[in-house]
């Protein structure tokens, strides 16, 4: 019915436009279709109904005006005396000819631009939006020759279930590379998604992405591997309901919080549910917004332990977050934003097990569930298992171990940002981020670990070398900060300082210091838009450890980014 109505409206507008000049009006208005209010209203109605665009409506009125002027010139103008009312006359044959010509031109344009051919494509095409991006990066990693070469790789440690008994272990513990440079690593990232409008207030979408693993913080894939094909992962899948100023999302979706990459990587997506509101004004220039969310980090295995009739209790791990923020908009495109968030990573701290007798080939230790699902590096760790020695051969009793997080993580996260326009339209952005871990307590960490810490402590003093806070500052300057037009450019620089237990090391940027915490240093870079969908960017990052053995890492990234 809507399609038929739109078609009738289109034909009425054309007819009214053509016949408009025949209506009695002042001489100055005789060739102006705008003088016919019915015509104007019909054209505006077509625009409001989405049948034609503003540009097409203007073209329609202009065409009718020109045709009417041509027709009026075909006969001599009668003498107009003071007080006379002029009513132009157009012969029927001429009107039919004009009507047919304009009709053919309008319908040809409508067909070419697909604005008056509703049956050309199926209905879903108008409701689905495709989007994506591709990045090709050349990355080089430079390590100082003074770095310690005995920094353990605890990710591989947990994967191998490493035997810490030197008398029974058959290989050395895994360590990370800290001294050998890795130059010119060619890496790619490709993401492709679609978003569908289900109704006025409901949307859904999915996105696929590359990635070297199923880790949460990066969708970058290193090339090579004998020219093997690359992996594709389900990166997002969500359903959203947005009534008015509210938005509710369920599934796997983008980060709903305002944050920086010292806490959450730009590639990180969140599994769970969130609710947010925005645009609630408290003054002419100010508005508030907020977000609540609950996100499962890891569910305990229903059948754990598999080789025991006595199953373990549910020990699910969650992230619960709440954020409140405000925007202030000032003259000259100045904008200030401030947010405060609280994040509670529940049940993520490791638990020391009760006595377990692995030499008897019994069930695993009762706190193996508290092994982190994913780690990078930096957090304080301890040995989870209390393994008992075999009385028949105590020296050679295998002691396969796991490590877990020593600290709780209950974070306060403050973000501020100032955007302004300077001379010649240049843009400047200044931002800062401060994070405070309220759950950090060194005495609790010692007690919970029963003294079995494996990093971030001084053997000589017996003191933990860690901390509870992190911060960063960032500045960007350029002709545009979103690089949406050809020739746009920007430069940026910043500094990061992240103590070991200020935040979980699993979820932040995987490039700076090659991911994780216990890092400090600067970064700088520049970007240039080759056109509205393609830009080049270069970035240099230099970092070192905050505490512990020396670990200095410099990274150079040169990349080409395409988006569609």
Automatic annotation (TrEMBL):
It comes from the Bacteria. Residues 63-84 are annotated as: Disordered. The keyword Transferase does not apply. The keyword Nucleotide-binding does not apply. Residues 74-84 have a biased composition (Basic and acidic residues). Residues 1-24 form the signal peptide. InterPro entries: Porin_5 (IPR032638). Keywords: Signal. This is Porin.
């Amino acid at each position: 019915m809507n399609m038929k109505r739109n078609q009738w409206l289109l034909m009425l507008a054309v007819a009214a436009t053509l016949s408009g000049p025949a209506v009695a009006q002042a001489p100055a208005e005789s060739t102006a279709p705008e003088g016919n209010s019915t015509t104007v209203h019909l054209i505006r109605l077509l625009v409001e109904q989405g049948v034609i665009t503003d540009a097409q409506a203007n073209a329609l009125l202009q065409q009718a005006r020109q045709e009417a002027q041509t027709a009026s010139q075909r006969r001599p103008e009668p003498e107009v005396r003071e007080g006379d009312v002029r009513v132009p006359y157009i012969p029927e044959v001429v009107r039919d000819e004009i009507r047919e010509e304009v009709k053919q031109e309008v319908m040809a344009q409508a067909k070419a631009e697909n604005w008056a051919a509703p049956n050309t494509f199926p209905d879903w095409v108008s409701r689905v939006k495709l989007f994506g991006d591709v990045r090709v990066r050349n990355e080089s990693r430079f390590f100082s020759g003074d770095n310690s070469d005995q920094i353990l790789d605890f990710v591989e440690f947990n994967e191998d279930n490493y035997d810490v008994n030197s008398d029974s272990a058959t290989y050395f513990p895994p360590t990370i590379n800290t001294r050998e440079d890795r130059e010119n690593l060619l890496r790619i990232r490709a993401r492709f998604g679609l978003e569908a409008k289900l109704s006025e207030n409901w949307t859904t979408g999915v996105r696929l992405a590359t990635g070297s693993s199923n880790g949460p913080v990066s969708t970058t894939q290193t090339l090579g591997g004998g020219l093997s094909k690359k992996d594709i992962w389900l990166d997002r899948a969500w359903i959203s309901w947005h009534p008015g100023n509210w938005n509710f999302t369920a599934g796997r979706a983008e980060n709903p919080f305002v944050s920086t990459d010292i806490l959450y990587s730009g590639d990180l997506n969140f599994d769970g549910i969130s609710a947010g509101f925005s645009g609630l004004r408290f003054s002419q220039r100010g508005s508030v917004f907020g977000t609540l969310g609950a996100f499962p980090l890891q569910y305990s295995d229903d059948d754990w332990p598999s080789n025991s009739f006595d199953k373990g209790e549910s020990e699910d791990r969650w992230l619960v977050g709440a954020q409140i923020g405000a925007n202030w908009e000032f003259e000259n495109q100045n904008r200030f934003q401030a947010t405060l968030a609280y994040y509670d990573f529940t049940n993520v701290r490791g638990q020391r097990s009760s006595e377990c007798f692995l030499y008897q080939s019994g069930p695993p230790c009762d706190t193996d569930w508290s092994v982190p699902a994913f780690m990078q590096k930096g957090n304080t760790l301890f040995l989870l298992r209390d393994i008992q020695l075999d009385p028949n051969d105590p020296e050679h009793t295998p002691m396969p171990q796991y490590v877990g997080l020593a600290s709780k993580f209950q974070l306060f996260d403050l973000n501020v940002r100032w955007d302004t326009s300077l001379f010649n339209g240049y843009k400047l952005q200044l931002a800062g981020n401060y994070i405070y871990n309220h759950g950090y307590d060194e005495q609790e960490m010692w007690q919970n670990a029963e003294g079995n810490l494996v990093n971030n402590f001084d053997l000589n003093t017996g003191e933990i070398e860690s901390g509870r806070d992190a911060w960063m500052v960032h500045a960007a300057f350029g002709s545009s900060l979103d690089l949406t037009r050809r020739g746009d450019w920007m430069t940026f620089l910043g500094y990061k300082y992240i103590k070991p237990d200020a935040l979980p090391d699993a979820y932040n940027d995987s490039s700076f210091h090659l991911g994780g915490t216990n890092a400090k240093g600067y970064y700088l870079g520049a970007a240039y838009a080759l056109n509205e969908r393609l830009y080049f960017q270069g970035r240099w990052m230099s970092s070192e450890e905050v505490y512990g053995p020396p670990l200095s890492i410099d990274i150079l990234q040169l990349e080409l980014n395409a988006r569609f």
